[in-house]
Amino acid sequence: MTETTRSIKRCAICAHPAASQCSGCGKTFYCSKEHQKDAWTKHKRLCKIYQRQAQGEDVPADSFCGLCGKTDGPLMKTQCCNRTICDDYEKYRMFTYSHASCARNHDRYTRCCFHYNERHGGDQFTCEKCEEGPSAEMVAWYEVNNFNFQADIERANPPDFPPSNCVKCGRLMKLGAESHAYTPTGGYICDECSGH
Ligand SMILES: [Zn+2]
Ligand SMILES: [Zn+2]
Ligand SMILES: [Zn+2]
Ligand SMILES: [Zn+2]
Ligand SMILES: [Zn+2]
Ligand SMILES: [Zn+2]
To answer: Record's Gene3D superfamilies (predicted)?
Structure first.
């Protein structure tokens, strides 16, 4: 029998090993208070929904966005996984790195959508092509960040990865959660050190 449940819980913002858990719903995990705070704006509505579900209330999955918990405003179904999400692509502003649009976030930054768009076929959770990425850290991030639906995060089995430190200042970098560059000599450099 193969064990596929995750041994380590990962942060919903950066995929680094988690140090704390949401005390409201117990479903989401974070590496730090900082990332827990970053996630809260989108998590707070979902948190209430998960708590109502845990108490046995039937909250239909198509009545709210699975990424931010919104019930009002236009909702649509994703093509990749046929789940309910905000129909909000227009919230994204061209040439910004804004993460304001749930639809775009799921589309661009998740294994679910990558697997679908690249037509890998078969189950995304055991897909070997999805395991090839720029780094194990980014592969893990694509699987467990909060642009994924909770059910997928719970099924995910992200790879372990070595920490990446900035080649200049030595600071631990969280590659999925901050912008960074890859240096020609190898290794990553943080935004401040690269002068951006
Ligand atoms: Zn984190
Ligand atoms: Zn919660
Ligand atoms: Zn949403
Ligand atoms: Zn999907
Ligand atoms: Zn795949
Ligand atoms: Zn640096």
So the answer is: 6.10.140.2220
